[in-house]
UniProtKB/TrEMBL annotation:
<keyword id="KW-0804">Transcription</keyword>
<dbReference type="GO" id="GO:0003700">
    <property type="term" value="F:DNA-binding transcription factor activity"/>
</dbReference>
<dbReference type="GO" id="GO:0003677">
    <property type="term" value="F:DNA binding"/>
</dbReference>
<feature type="domain" description="HTH arsR-type">
    <location>
        <begin position="1"/>
        <end position="89"/>
    </location>
</feature>
<protein>
    <submittedName>
        <fullName>Winged helix-turn-helix transcriptional regulator</fullName>
    </submittedName>
</protein>
<dbReference type="InterPro" id="IPR051011">
    <property type="entry name" value="Metal_resp_trans_reg"/>
</dbReference>
<dbReference type="Pfam" id="PF01022">
    <property type="entry name" value="HTH_5"/>
</dbReference>
<dbReference type="InterPro" id="IPR036390">
    <property type="entry name" value="WH_DNA-bd_sf"/>
</dbReference>
<dbReference type="InterPro" id="IPR001845">
    <property type="entry name" value="HTH_ArsR_DNA-bd_dom"/>
</dbReference>
<dbReference type="InterPro" id="IPR036388">
    <property type="entry name" value="WH-like_DNA-bd_sf"/>
</dbReference>
<dbReference type="InterPro" id="IPR011991">
    <property type="entry name" value="ArsR-like_HTH"/>
</dbReference>
<keyword id="KW-0805">Transcription regulation</keyword>
<keyword id="KW-0238">DNA-binding</keyword>
């Protein structure tokens, strides 16, 4: 239960949930690609990405000037999908 609570606390924002859903469908994505797909400012996407990386939800690697992110904790996807399937939401 502690792991579920940690996941919920760390992803408790619509932009963070959308980032997790994007990364669940793609192996990795750059900050630019994520911000374009979500139609948010790059600085906002970077803020959410760095926070989730610090908490251990995401991995990142640099290729030249671009930073690419991927899911480190795949269980996050299961928790979000489970909540999305709830009929009371």
């Amino acid at each position: 239960m502690e792991k579920v609570a940690f996941i919920l606390k760390t992803t408790a924002h619509p932009t963070r949930i959308a980032i997790v859903q994007l990364l669940a469908a793609q192996e990795s994505m750059s900050v630019n690609d994520i911000s374009e797909r979500l139609r948010v400012e790059q600085s906002l996407a970077s803020h959410h990405l760095s926070g989730m990386k610090l908490k251990g939800i995401l991995n990142s690697h640099r290729e030249g000037k671009n930073v690419f992110y991927s899911l480190k904790m795949r269980e996050v996807v299961d928790v979000i999908q489970c909540l999305a399937a709830c009929t009371f939401l």
